[in-house]
Amino acid sequence: MSDKKIVTFKKEWRGYAVGEIAGFDVAAADALIESGRAKPYVDKAVPEKAGKAGAAKKTTAAKPPVADGDLPPEQPEQPEQPEQPEDLEPPELDEKP
């Protein structure tokens, strides 16, 4: 099994969006990092060192604050459809024999 290196994308690249996480072989990941398109992935939910051997701390991962540049584009509002009165009937269609 080949070694993989996980990166987080800083710029769009070949279908990957900014902020996406992906694993590549070490050479490809290093090339992405050197080009500035990605940075090494750091899992914030996993502590690097445990306080005491054999006793792991229970942590709750909080969502990082959203920066202005990380917000998804706003969706345009859909125009409201005018309500039709209930007493109106659809027009009759002529049936051809």
How would you describe the overall organization of this protein?
- The mean pLDDT is 74.
- With 97 residues, the protein is α+β, with helices and mostly antiparallel strands.
- It is 10% helix and 14% strand.
- The protein has a 3-stranded antiparallel β-sheet, with helices on one face.
- The N and C termini lie far apart (72 Å).
- It has 1 helix and 3 strands; from the N terminus they run E-E-H-E.
Compact overview of the structure:
The chain has 97 residues and is an alpha+beta fold. It contains one helix and three strands, in the order ββαβ.
Question: SSE order, as H and E?
Answer: EEHE
Question: How far is the N terminus from the C terminus?
Answer: 72 Å
- Main β sheet profile: 3 strands, antiparallel
**Dominant shape:** elongated
Given the helix and strand composition, which structural class is it?
A: alpha+beta
Strand order of the largest sheet: 2-1-3
How large is the share of residues in beta strands?
A: 5-15%
* Percentage of residues in helical conformation: 10-25%
- Count the beta strands: 3
- The total of helices stands at 1
Task: Write down the Rg.
Answer: 27 Å
pLDDT below 50 for ≥5 consecutive residues: which ranges? none
Chain oligomer state: single chain
Average residue pLDDT? 74
Notable characteristics:
single chain; 97 residues; alpha+beta; three-stranded antiparallel β-sheet; 1 helix; elongated
Topology:
Layout: E1 4-9, E2 21-25, H1 26-35, E3 38-40
Antiparallel strand pairs: 1-2, 1-3
